[in-house]
UniProtKB/TrEMBL annotation:
It comes from the Bacteria. The lineage of its organism: Bacteria, Pseudomonadati, Bacteroidota, Saprospiria, Saprospirales. Signal peptide: none annotated. Gene3D superfamilies: 3.30.70.2860, CinA-like (3.90.950.20), MoaB/Mog-like domain (3.40.980.10). SUPFAM superfamilies: CinA-like (SSF142433), Molybdenum cofactor biosynthesis proteins (SSF53218). Belongs to the CinA family. HAMAP family: CinA_B (MF_00226_B). Pfam families: CinA (PF02464), CinA_KH (PF18146), MoCF_biosynth (PF00994). This is CinA-like protein. Residues 4-170 form the MoaB/Mog domain.
Length: 410
């Protein structure tokens, strides 16, 4: 089955509100084997709504509308639906009872404007919304299912999770699409595809692999259509992971810093950071994980050379001979962080993030990273672009990935 989404509201078109509903709907519908093939954002006028319904009805299986169901005059979706379907808006007593109970619970008086929420297009089925005043509506016309829901994300999700998705799935003969996302760091999507292409070429048509690249990482989404279970999906994921080896750090959108935290907890190790060019961004990523205080002790942001010497113990001669952006300096930064912060492992970064500050010998984008413990320090050089923000983000991810591989002995 195919679906098309129509989001209604001027606030979407002028950028005041971001359409998060369509992304959520796309993922949920895909899981029940309904593919979203188009998303439209339109003005909240009756003519516009009718125009787009006329274009889509009879040509697609499911049409989902979000927005325009409030009690004010600018909310015209119900009126447009009634006119399009050639029916009247009729009073629904059960909706008013639900609204009255809701308002009583929150100590608000039911006004005449609120009572308009109890009027719906004649013949529609109600999809209950206990999170707000606008109910979901299910209609069928000219071979298409039309579902209309409020634009408030948590209300829309409630309606779909409490009847809407189940009702749609029942129409699709119980077929499901199982998904698994493989999380990787360190390789680009081209390298990954070259490595696993023999596996992909041998897959049956109902198993699909997609690449979702990010800065410093790639998510590999494996999908399998099945009436029964996800055994084929699991076997495919295992094949891909075995082929890719240590670039795989987890599954299902786990963040790299979260995976590292789990390793540190398991190994009962503490972590500290010494940052120059990343300016505390590595620390920010680590501490964004709840419970990180169990393993992360702190950071020294040694942006200036005197902080590198005074707080981290980097030798002045090292800075004079090799410069702040060097293998030697980040090595001493890691060693200083281990001592000063009294931790088991540490990360250090130093580089020229840009857009200025480079030299012919060390152009913008030259970055050194070190990771180490009392027994061992490893270093790595990056040659990045002149985009400051991207350089900081990529360096932070690369540093965390170095730490992950260091911890598991790779």
């Amino acid at each position: 089955m195919e679906a098309k989404i129509i989001t209604i509201g001027d606030e979407l078109l002028i950028g005041q509100v971001i359409d998060s509903n369509s992304a959520w709907l796309g993922a949920e519908l895909e899981a029940i084997n309904i593919r979203v093939t188009e998303i439209r954002s339109i003005q909240d006028t009756e003519d516009e709504i009718i125009k787009h319904l006329s274009e889509l009805t009879g040509k697609t299986d499911v049409i989902i509308l979000t927005g325009g169901l409030g009690p004010t005059k600018d909310d015209v979706t119900k009126k447009a639906l009634a006119n399009f379907l050639g029916v009247e808006l009729e009073f629904n007593a059960s909706i008013l009872e639900q609204l009255t109970a809701l308002f009583k619970r929150i100590n608000i008086e039911v006004k005449e404007s609120h009572k308009t929420q109890a009027y719906v297009p004649a013949g529609c089925a109600i999809l209950s919304n206990k999170m707000g005043t606008a109910q979901g509506m299910w209609m069928e016309h000219n071979g298409s299912i039309i579902i209309s829901m409020p634009g408030v994300p948590y209300e829309m999700k409630y309606i779909m999770e409490n009847g809407g998705l189940e009702k749609l799935a029942a129409l699709n003969n119980g077929n499901r699409i199982f998904h698994k996302t493989i999380m990787t760091a360190g390789w680009g999507e081209t390298m990954i595809e070259e490595k696993i292409l023999p596996i992909i070429d041998a897959l049956p048509p109902h198993i699909k692999v997609a690449y979702l690249p990010g800065l410093g990482n790639v998510r590999i989404r494996v999908s399998s259509k099945s009436e029964n279970d996800d055994s084929e999906l699991t076997a495919t994921v295992d094949q891909i992971c075995n082929s890719l080896g240590n670039i795989v750090y987890g599954f299902d959108n786990i963040r790299l810093e979260e995976a590292i935290g789990a390793i540190l907890l398991e190994q009962k190790l503490t972590l500290g950071t010494a940052e120059s060019c990343t300016g505390g961004n590595v620390a920010r990523m680590i501490t964004s994980i709840a419970g990180s205080s169990a393993y992360y002790k702190g950071s020294i942001v040694s942006y200036a050379n005197e902080i590198k010497t005074d707080l981290l113990g980097v030798q002045s001669k090292t800075l004079e001979d090799h410069g702040a952006v060097s293998k030697e300096t980040v090595t001493e930064m890691v060693q200083g962080a281990l001592r000063k912060l009294d931790v088991d492992v540490a990360i250090a970064t130093s580089g020229i993030a840009g857009p200025g500050g480079g030299t012919p010998e060390k152009p913008v984008g030259t970055i050194w990273i070190a990771v180490g413990s009392a027994d061992k320090v490893i270093t790595h050089k990056l040659n990045l672009t002149k985009n400051r923000n991207k350089n900081i983000t990529y360096t932070s991810i690369a540093a965390l990935n170095m730490l992950r591989k260091f911890l598991v002995g790779q």
